[in-house]
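ESCALATION

Customer reports they have been waiting on this structure for their group meeting. Please prioritize. Original submission:
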Amino acid sequence: MIIQFRSGGLRAVLFALIWWALSGGVLNSWLIGMPVVMLATWVSVVLQPSYTWSLIGFVRFIPFFLWHSLHGGVDVARRALHPRLPISPEIYEHLWQLPPGLPRVFMANTVSLLPGTLSAELGEERLCVHILDKTGGFAAELSTIEAHVASVFGLKLVADGYEAL
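Update from on-call: job pushed to the front of the queue and completed.
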């Protein structure tokens, strides 16, 4: 319960900051803003259970994501501009090690944002990913992405799933 209260408190602060930014800081707007912030907080706590976030994991994730975005973008551009268009597309099924919920959605979105990959289906046991080149080391890359996402959520991947750090 305390975890949800802290989570609700943090969410309320974030929603209040969003309201303040959208309203331009006008004090009269809080007559409407306060009930809206409270409702948004309640709905978010009910619909999305709290998760632990690791600040260190998130800070480490940012350069990892930026580097892979740049590297993937250059690779996709090279393939698109090559006269023979060297692609070998495939749908790959990656078995989950992350727990259900937000960590899996975060990983699926991360994979979709990286050039050359697209999350095609988010299933109970696997993530189906469309890849441009089946001859590359995409399986290892997906495992690396999953490990970085796990660290964002304060988890450590083990042979048969995950454990909290």
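Sent to customer with the following note: The chain has a mean pLDDT of 86.
Escalation resolved.
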